[in-house]
Amino acid sequence: MSINRFLSRVAADGGMSSSNNFVVKFGRAKAISPPTGFDEMIEFFCEEAQLPNLNTAEGSMNGLYLGSGQLKYPTTRVFTELQLGFSLTANMEILKYLNTWHDYIFGEQTNPTNPKTQNRVNRLAYMDDYVCDIYIRKTEIGPTSTTERNPITYVIERAYPYAIDAVPLQFGSTQITKVTAQFSYMRHYTTMEDIRNVKDSNIPAGGKLVGEVEIGPGVFKQEYLLPSGKIIERTGNKVSA
Predict the structure, then answer these.
(1) HSE-up of 24 (CA within 13 Å, CB side)?
(2) Which residues neighbour 147 within 8 Å (Cβ) at sequence distance 6 or greater?
(3) Less Cβ around it within 10 Å: N or C end of the chain?
């Protein structure tokens, strides 16, 4: 395959994907109130995420046909844990929230006027009160925003932090403090979009090419029909429909 054909194929599919472009959002747990501006904090400071894997539990049978060996067959979809890593500001809001979230699960609410006693008990909260959905959007740079194109979103259902990793502190060169949390969840699903419909800043997603004329060497005048029924014109280099 020639390099020109390869580049044309890449361009037709919207370019190559970059691993450092994603957005993470948390839903709302019923009984846990996040701090002011929490959505923005998660979006800005989540520096490591995983698009969850899919696995399959299998059963097996022997001798389905005379002389045949072991035959495997799928039985259950298996969803493994999820890891998210965050950079922390000086006020450590994200770490505070994760600790508060985990404390609530085991009834460890903090009351400054009533210090905890040594013989306190832990009573599990109702799961419906502390689970929430987590949204991981894989994004790509678009004409008007670094996260404008969104080919796939993973919706993580009924998630909660089952482990908050140790936060290392040490003397030496200055480094940003970071925390990593492990989340369990019930299952996930994906929503998918075709980012090739995002043409440029003048042509919203879903615009369909309905007319085209070359008005100069390599310069085209194109008409696009938007989902609203409006027709807009674009002049410039040719954009594929």
Answers:
(1) 20
(2) 21, 23, 137, 139, 140, 141
(3) N
